[in-house]
Design goal:
By secondary structure, this protein is mostly beta strands. The chain has 4 helices and 24 strands. The protein has 3 domains: 31-114, RNA Polymerase Alpha Subunit, Chain A, domain 2 (Beta Complex); 124-213, RNA Polymerase Alpha Subunit, Chain A, domain 2; 216-302, RNA Polymerase Alpha Subunit, Chain A, domain 2, CATH 2.170.120.30. Strands 2, 5, 8, 10, 11, 12, 14, 15 and 16 form a 9-stranded mixed beta sheet that branches. A 5-stranded mixed beta sheet has the order 6-4-1-3-7.
Length: 303
């Protein structure tokens, strides 16, 4: 087949024009150098080690390239990578080399600042700690919060050894008690306050808060004061013979308490003839608690 130099002449002229335009464009661009702040990425951390504290999450890099290419760089396209595969426990220095910085084609990394960073590394540890639920708000008037429990009651945490040993408890998202009149049941996320420590398995807990009627207080008047353990052959007189007793308990339990249900007394064991000032005592009851007795001391005459 004979060669025809002018065959497809139009296509050849177009290709030559495009090549010339590309060369002119590239040749006309200036190579510049800029400083950029880029994220620092940690890789190959040994499984038995943990980074302690707050290591730097960015570094500055000096990059070279055409002005057009550098102006199009998006956040995250250039990343400094630090390989920790050789890390050991303790305070260590690590070098960040320019060739370990990922950058798009056409961009050269000239320098990393700082070229060396210090990182504290510790052995990893695990521990099981109790879950202490957090609550907020107040129950409805006349009610109080009672027993608070979480299921699961404990969780396992993992992190740097010194930080794990300092954690006494895990907490939860707050459970609202606002206006509650009966048991509150809520499923909330469990967490720990120290960001360097984490749960072995992220999980939620079912928090139960018992809501009980608030205890009320009332005064029982004209409660007779009796004596106990008076010696044989003696007689005793108590002045005053009636006292007021303040009791505290659930409203329903106190509603039916009469003065004869409150047993007030003084103990005369071992006392002979004479006058004594003795403290008034009240028998305990499952229905109420005694908060005060008025008067608290009575005069006793023994003959």
């Amino acid at each position: 087949m004979r060669y025809h130099p002018f065959r497809h002449l139009g296509l050849k002229v177009l290709a030559l024009a495009l090549a010339t335009l590309l060369w002119v464009t590239v040749a006309g661009e200036h190579i510049v150098e800029r400083s950029l702040r880029v994220p620092l990425e940690f890789r190959n951390i040994p499984g038995q080690l943990e980074i302690v504290g707050d290591p730097p999450d960015t570094v500055d890099v000096r990059v070279r390239g055409s002005s057009a290419i550098l102006s199009r760089v998006q956040p995250g396209e250039i990343v400094a990578v630090l390989d920790l595969s050789a890390a050991r426990a303790g305070s260590r220095l690590f070098h960040i080399r320019a060739d370990e910085v990922r950058a798009p084609f056409g961009i050269e990394v000239a320098q990393v600042v700082p070229p060396t960073i210090a990182i504290e590394v510790e052995k990893s540890a695990r521990r099981r700690i109790p879950v202490v639920p957090a609550v907020q708000g107040e129950p409805a008037p006349g009610f109080v919060a009672g027993r608070i429990s979480a299921n699961p009651a404990t969780v396992e945490i993992v992190g740097p050894d010194t930080r794990v040993r300092q954690i006494a408890e895990a907490t939860t998202e707050p459970v609202s008690l606002a206006g509650a009149r009966s048991r509150v049941l809520d499923v909330v996320t469990v967490g720990v306050a120290d960001s360097s420590v984490r749960l072995v398995q992220p999980q939620a807990a079912t928090v139960t808060v018992e809501i009980w009627p608030a205890p009320v207080e009332r005064t029982v008047s004209a409660v007779p004061v009796r004596w106990r353990n008076l010696g044989t052959g003696f007689r005793a007189q108590v002045t005053p013979s009636l006292v007021r007793v303040s009791i505290r308990g659930h409203r329903d339990a106190l509603a039916n308490v009469r003065n004869d249900a409150v047993q007030a007394f003084v103990v005369l064991a071992g006392l002979g003839s004479g006058r004594y000032n003795l403290r008034v005592q009240v028998d305990p009851s499952q229905s109420f608690a005694v908060t005060s007795v008025d008067p608290a001391v009575v005069a006793v005459a023994i003959k």
